[in-house]
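Regression test attached.
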Amino acid sequence: MQLLLLLLIPLLAAPLLLVLPAGSRGVRSAALVAPLLQLGWGFWLWGHPPGELSLPWLPRIGLALELGLDGIALPLVLLAALLTAMATLATPVEQPRQRLFFALLLFTNLGLVGAFLARNALLFLIAYELILIPTTLLVATWGGERRAGAAIRFLTYGALSGVALVAGILALGWLQPGGVDFSYASLAAQPLPLQQQRWVLALLLLAFGLKLPVVPLHGWQPLTYSQAPTPVAMLLSGAVSKLGAYGLLCFGVGFLPEAWAAWSPWLAALGAFSALYGALNAVVQLEMRRLVAYSSLGHMGMLLLALAAATPVSLQGVVAQMLAHGLIIALLFCLVGLIERKTGTSAIPELSGLLNPQRGLPFTMGLMLLALLAAAGVPGLAGFVAELLVFEGSWVAFPWPTLLCLLASGLTAVYAIRLFNRVGFGRLDNARADWVSTTWLERTPALVLTALVLLAGLWPAALTGFSEGATGPLALRSSDAVSVIAAAPTHITELPA
Amino acid sequence: MASILDTAAAAGAFNTLLAAVDAAGLRAALEGPGPFTVFAPVDDAFAALPPGTVQTLVDNPPQLARILKYHVLAGAYSREQLVAEPAWTSLEGAPIPIRRSDPFEVKNATVVNADLLCDNGVVHVINRVILPG
Amino acid sequence: MTTSLASERTTAPLIPPSTHPYAEVIHRLEAGGSMLPDTPENLQQIIGIYKAYAVPMDFYWRDLLYIAERVFLNPLPAFKYFLPQEYLDLPNSYAGDQAKLRIWRGGEKAHPELLAFMERGETGRMPRLLHHLWHDRVNMEFAEACMQAMFWHQGMGGRFNDYLESEAYRANADRAIRAYFQGNPLMLGLYRLFPEMFLEQVKRLSYTANLGLFWEVMAPVFFEMSDIYDEGGFQGVPDAMDFLVNGIFAVAGRPIYHHVYVGDTCYEIIPKSAGFTWLYEAALPYVEAVFYRTSPFRGTRSYNAQAHQVPADQADFHYGILYADVFPVGSAGIPPTLLMQDMLHFLPPYLKDLYKQHKRGEEDELIQLGISFQRSMYNVTSAVIQALRGALLYPLDDTDPEHLLANRRFFEAQMDRFLRPEARLSDIQSQDYR
């Protein structure tokens, strides 16, 4: 029941928002209540771990309301709740059709939290599919100039991902030797024969690869991220895309371990390729949102690498990277959105001198520098901890892809500095620079996220502490299995496994 | 014939100029044998200068002398000789352009009475104080 | 030459309209106006800025003279901005009852607002050294940068620069240097080894004196303009410009000199008898060097000389306030920012109120006042252009078409300098440029 509450909060709050009197001024604040409650409740559950909930729903097809909260799901639930709250705060006060907007955000939150909490594959499937509807509507209704095209593309890719997931999960459940069973416990306990695992894994890779996304399945991502309204871009990149990584970790590494291990060199290579592809594309982007989108793509590649390596350290890195990247990317989109709102553009060539203390956006640009440094993995910020774990954990399994990812990580600094140099420095045009400075209300979400990025950097246990117990058993390789090259450092075995 | 300064004094329309020549300590020089060509601004020309202009100059003889020297050429030149050249170098050092021959215009001043011959030079009466630059 | 610049032409024009891109401005100048449009707000902005500029200027000229006359070649001039009482009380030659020419009211000693600021600054009462180190003071660096610009661009009309190359100057400087370093074998030895280096420093100091003497006049002029405005005296921007034109003529003959005091002995490096005047040897070079040219300031923007981003010809330099992008970048060592910071302390209340109503209000006052400063300097430049026209050309109400055409050519040639895209002349035509 305690777990159900996490779902009930958005489920009940969303319709309530819709029936608030039109034009009511408190819609924003009301919309903020649900994710904050969720966040608070999540933290309480962290201190008081609840038991798993299992209620039959449609036993005939294997659907049951099975919920659980382990060390991987808990931080992701908190992340989803936090980002929903920040997305709400980052929504402009003058947002048209607020009630519907916030209700859809809450439905997205419901799907996210549901998927993270689910301990039944069918339930996960339902939650996963649920997300597509509100997010598509959000992009299509409140998006930028090319929102229609973006929404259609997002929907198409999302639907493809959904279909693949339906096929994959049904196959997974139906092929169970003990009869149709979708509960995670059974799926983990009785792995399928290798040949069947391969087929299912192929479907799931398609489904989650589209969601992450991973090159070459990323076609929807830059366009959607650049057209989505800022709060939606924050939520999509920060939380929804993590569902792909979570799915791969849970289903791929967890339920299909043999097939995963067999394909992992290819997946690692794909991850490295994604990372490089994303970073190189980010370097040449002329639009800030697209730059951030490609940056995200690059970091998703690193996630895939760590998932492929599947050593205890790398899996811890996966969770840490999901959280760190979730915070950083949401912060970046939040700041880009602020700049766009003030200056009316996010085109890099049109902007310059925003650091100008008098007429620029010095506060926003200052945080932007911090966020970019965090994305580049500078020590003392969240990105460093996560990337360190990813690289250390993956190195023993796949040194070459890891090196390529390190290179991509270096490129992060290139596009970060390039963006900052073009947009932050230089001459601010008087004719253009006619906007009011940011208010504290507008700065709040960015400030909260920045504080967390800093906190996670200075106190890495915030990123890894939750998940140590949960990721360990999933590991397919030992961190000290010097499986590939003899030269691989062995001292990393001392890290917590 | 009288000297340049005597001619000017007799004319009666050059009181400011004569006072300025005294203040600048140029009297002795202008009474010398010369010969000189002097472009003599009438009193009205000085009066047209904004208030304080003349006073500041009179208070500072070297600066006044410099302005006055700009109105003087070494050698005696008639109107006819002057208009043959585009510009003449003044005693101050800066050139005095001859802009028109008819009406006879020296820099931005108009010569209202040309070729007053004196013992030690020629006087051309101008309607405006001319300034170097 | 006439003082009635504002007399509008009422009869049919004797010459056809100008086809210059700035034809509108040229016609306004020909009608006795300023480059700055005549609006009540422009008048308010420029007069308010003259006031805010005059107070630090009262410090600048005193300190420049102090540096040129007393600090002189001090090899470690750490305290050159610490103005002694003697120079704070130095009577202004053109203000106060002792002045020979008394057209401008105002006291002879340092302005009370300046003294109050020097006492407390932005921070509070503390020893002068701490005010200095905390940079809570008048930014003399700006004044020295202006001097540097004049020194560097050199020959911009007048005879000043030629004199610095003369034997007479060399001899005078030599006397002063020997007297200044008397009993200092180290410096005298260095002087013997590197005489040109010392001479170069003296030339620099001569320009310092030059600028000090120039501003000594401008400070009371600007104070007077502020007072007249407060009394309701100016009807429009052309009135303010005419006042400046008359001021330029009134002190045109003011001597420019460089005296050095060693103990009680005065060494005349440039004697008054050299005949240098305020108009030719100070004002015109100043306007050219500071308003038009200056140099590409480090920090406001990066320039690459190899990529021809800096003109090869110094005369084409265009980094002065008339071309400036007045966004201060806030880092150290940028003279225009320093001046804005100085003026910020002395803004009259009506300008503070005006800035509050526009753009970011108090947050970007520095930029708003910088743009007001730009407007006011376009007005000063207009006064200089009209004064030159008055001195070298013909009255605006002349009836000879050839004279009017000569005036037209002069105005057009002046406006040609604002054809380059950096010029702000077209910006200041609109009140929206803030």
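Expected vs. actual: identical. Chain C touches chain B through 32 residues (CB under 8 Å).
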